[in-house]
UniProtKB/TrEMBL annotation:
PROSITE patterns: DHHC. It is a multi-pass membrane protein. Pfam families: DHHC. This is Palmitoyltransferase. It catalyses: L-cysteinyl-[protein] + hexadecanoyl-CoA = S-hexadecanoyl-L-cysteinyl-[protein] + CoA. It comes from Cyprinus carpio (Common carp).
Length: 297
């Protein structure tokens, strides 16, 4: 029996009508295993991301800060830039290697459905692709080959889905990349002004042509990622405040969940209560205890 809602591609079945032979045995995964998607495109994009940050580090340190005559200028800007870059890479690593909220594979069996003791009239969604019981607001990712709770989108730059458990790290990643891009652009402007006023051979350890090329490349990289990450950051904050994922907005899915305030939605993603830990990629947010399966009557 197909779902009456055409936007769902999965199959809706009653517990009594589920065919257990169609499913593999449930996949009991250990929670301490690191999550990593073996996708060639995603791995290449993730490596490129780290290389671009390393390139910015090299240009900022060896072209602009170390040759600077002001020790205070170098120390302040070097500490700030390196701290932001470290937080950006740490956020990227957490977003890439954190389970975004994957639903266990192969648990859509008759025995498991009966053990849930559903009320008469209740139905469950079964994903025919990964053969799992699909919670409300979960979507199947063709790259991760799993159903992901509150899946926003699959991002190749972090080689992972952005979902319920790692959205905080993805938001922090976009925010810190935006900040280091802005900081790098400001330093490039000041360095160009400094070199125009002084001898180009004294404003960098590299030759003048190499210095100009490196600064132009850094400027191009900074502008590109400044625009890209600012858009992504704003989109993510809007999705969090409205409690509506990117897929739900794209498909214009009907809201079937309780509406909460914007502040409550922010705390649901970044943790409760508000603290400096919101901005730390090393702090795991406490999402609270919630029923992993929300059934639609």
């Amino acid at each position: 029996m197909r779902s009456p809602v055409p936007r769902f591609r999965d199959v809706e079945r009653q517990a009594s009508g589920l065919q257990p032979a169609q499913c593999l045995p449930p996949c009991h995964e250990r929670q301490n295993n690191m999550w990593f998607i073996r996708d060639a495109c995603g791995i290449i994009c993730a490596i490129i991301t780290w290389l671009l940050v390393v390139f910015a580090e090299v240009v900022v340190l060896f072209v602009m800060l170390i040759p600077s005559k002001s020790l205070t200028y170098s120390l302040v800007n070097g500490t700030l830039f390196n701290s932001l870059a470290f937080l950006a890479l740490a956020s990227h690593f957490r977003a890439m290697c954190t389970d975004p909220g994957a639903v266990p594979k192969g648990n859509a069996t008759r025995e498991y459905i009966e053990s849930l003791q559903l009320k008469p009239g209740q139905v469950v969604y079964k994903c025919p692709k990964c053969c799992s019981i699909k919670p409300d607001r979960a979507h199947h990712c063709s790259v991760c080959k799993r159903c992901i709770r509150k899946m926003d989108h699959h991002c190749p730059w972090v080689n992972n889905c952005v979902g319920e458990n790692n959205q905080k790290y993805f938001v922090l990643f976009t925010m810190y990349i935006f900040l280091i891009s802005l900081h790098a652009l400001v330093m490039v402007v000041f360095h160009f002004l400094y070199c125009f006023e002084d001898d180009w051979t004294k404003c960098s350890t590299f030759s003048p042509p190499a210095t100009v090329i490196l600064l132009i490349l850094l400027c191009f990289e900074g502008l590109l990622f400044l625009i890209f990450t600012s858009v992504m950051f704003g989109t993510q904050i809007h999705s969090i405040c409205t409690d509506e994922t990117g897929i739900e907005q794209l498909k214009k899915e009907e809201r079937r969940w309780a509406k909460k305030t914007k502040w409550m939605n922010m705390k649901a993603v970044f943790g409760h209560p508000f603290s400096i830990a919101w901005f730390s990629p090393f702090s795991t947010p406490d999402h609270g205890k919630a029923d992993p399966y929300q059934y639609v009557v």
